[in-house]
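Before relying on records like the one below, remember that each one covers exactly one chain. Contacts with other chains, cofactors or solvent are not represented anywhere in the record.
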Amino acid sequence: MLRSRSGACRQRPCREVGGQFDVAFTFTEALVGGAAIDAVGTPLPDETLAVCKSADAVLLAAIGGCVRRPARHAHPRRRH
């Protein structure tokens, strides 16, 4: 799960639905967006990208975030 803030409230619906269908979910949180910029200076850190690539699925649950716009070179779509 990628997060900009706390992810606990976004895990609950998955766990409830999984319980109804006897499916278990494992969550790994990683920084993305404003929280990642504040912590490491980039909106999509290499560690987050590695977690996403190794996962079966990715739940991007970003809400809110920083009010400033990131530098143009730090935009995730321009990452090479």
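The radius of gyration is 14 Å.
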